[in-house]
Amino acid sequence: MTDADTVSQLKKIAEGREAEIFEYGDGRVLRLFRPGSSLEDARTQAAILQAAADAGVRVPAVHGVETVEGRHGIILERIDGDDLFEIVARSPWRLFSISSLTARLQADMHARTAPPALPSIRDSYRQRAVSRSGAPQELIDAALKILDRLPDGDRLLHGDFHPGNIMLGDQGPVVIDWTGAASGSPEADFARTMLIMRLGEPPSNLPLLIRFFALFARSLIIRTLNRTYRKHIAVDENLLRAWQLPTAVARLGDDIAEERDTLLDHIRELIARDAA
Fold first, then answer.
1. pLDDT tens per residue across span 237-260
2. Model confidence over 120-172: pLDDT tens digits?
3. Residue 48: which of 172, 156, 166 has the closest Cα?
4. CA distance 10 to 4
């Protein structure tokens, strides 16, 4: 195992909005969260990954929690491969097979019962809407009104499921980045996936080619995801529709500046639709 005193001693191999990934010895990486995350956050994420593994989903194995220069992280199995967005950007002819794989993996996950340790998606979204979204109060109130009448559900939900959070290597697909994992209705998780694919902005740290292709191909990916997912799991259309507004308001809590105006417009359109 690597014994690093400073972050500068580590070799960074990837990064996202919430964390950076560093080499950390043979067959392992350190997912080091950005400054501001607590040790308890890292321990919670390690427990969530283990819970997902216990439920039968292929995720990176957890090898412990580590702190470097006051930043906390999780020591994980190293998954050698590329995420599905990267694969499609390099090999566009694989768009349909990769989109279908994404949908099948999500449907398979939603067929599994969530471990009791996971929070409910209703509680998670309620916290995001009230505490973190920064949305105008009337939008928050509209989202909370719907959340109060939605069922809890007991399915395993990822909370941020899209092709960029699936790694494909020699051992098959591995689902990563379980920060928003919860229990609840599959329609809540699927609504978020559809929202991300329609309105989400690729992280600015991604190569320009991958960012451009993700935007260019999103309509094709959405159609394939939607069609394939519904082949593998029953969807309650009323429930899916109901989850759209709370999901969009909760997404504001992720504090992605480049999405905020588009999201606010989308939320107001949903409120107008539901009032019609």
1. 999 999 999 999 999 888 888 888
2. 999 999 888 777 778 888 999 999 999 999 998 999 999 999 998 999 988 89
3. 156
4. 7
Write out the DSSP string of the chain.
----SSGGGS-EEEE-SSEEEEE-STTEEEEEEPTT--HHHHHHHHHHHHHHHHTT---PPEEEEEEETTEEEEEEE---EEEHHHHHHH-GGGHHHHHHHHHHHHHHHHTSBPPTTSPBHHHHHHHIIIII----HHHHHHHHHHHTTS----EEE-SS-SGGGEEEETTEEEE---TT-EEE-HHHHHHHHHHHHHHPPPPTTS-HHHHHHHHHTHHHHHHHHHHHHHHHS---HHHHHHHHHHHHHHHHTT--HHHHHHHHHHHHHHHHHHH-
Nearest alpha carbon to residue 28 among 67, 69, 62, 72: 62
Q: Which domains does the chain have, with CATH numbers?
A: 7-77 (3.30.200.20), 81-275 (3.90.1200.10)
CA distances from 267 to 150, 174, 250, 270 (A): 18, 32, 11, 5
Question: HEC profile for 150-200?
Answer: CCCCCEEECCCCCHHHEEEECCEEEECCCCCCEEECHHHHHHHHHHHHHHC
The dihedral over CA atoms of 168, 12, 57, 38, expressed in degrees to the nearest 10, equals -160
Answer for the pair 81, 169: CB distance below 8 angstroms, yes or no: yes
230 C-beta neighbours (distance < 10 Å), count: 14
